[in-house]
Amino acid sequence: xxxxxxxxxxxxxxxxxxxxxxxxxxxxxxxxxxxxxxxxxxxxxxxxxxxxxxxxxxxxxxxxxxxxxxxxxxxxxxxxxxxxxxxxxxxxxxxxxxxxxxxxxxxxxxxxxxxxxxxxxxxxxxxxxxxxxxxxxxxxxxxxxxxxxxxxxxxxxxxxxxxxxxxxxxxxxxxxxxx
Length: 179
Prior knowledge:
Elements: H1 10-17, E1 36-41, E2 47-51, H2 61-74, E3 80-84, H3 97-106, E4 108-109, E5 149-153, E6 161-166, E7 172-176
C-alpha cells in the first residue's frame, strides 16, 4: 500500500534510509556510514536527500544514489531529489557507533582515531607537528581482539580500507581507514 506523499515525515525517511545497505559493506547502512547528511521533506511531498561520498570518485555513489531513490519510491515518495554535497568532505567521524560495531562484527576493524581537521591551521605547520598526525593507529583484530597487529598494505579490498594482519591469530583483516 503506497503512502500519501504529504504524510511522509523526515523521521520516516531517515528510518527508511537506515535500511539501505552500503553496496560494498552490506552490513552497514548508508545512514550508519554517515553518507546521508540531511533529509528535507517539503510541504508538497518532495523529498530531498543530501549525500556525501566517502571519498572523491567513490565508484559506489551511483549505486547508493539509485538505492536511496528506489527505497523511497518503493514507500510511495514519488518526488525524490538527491543532492550531492562535497564540502565538508566525508569523515569517519560521521559513522555511527552502531555502524562501527556492525563493521567489527562483519570482520572489518572500524576506525580507531577521530579524524583531525587541519583546515583551520596557519601556513607553516608541518605534517607530524601535531600529536597523532602521521602516526600509525593501534588497530584491534576484529576476530580475536588483539592489538598485536600490523599493516600489510595501505589498500585493502576497497580504497577506503587498509589491509592488516593479526600477529596472534594470524588472520588478515580490513581496517576502515580514518579520514
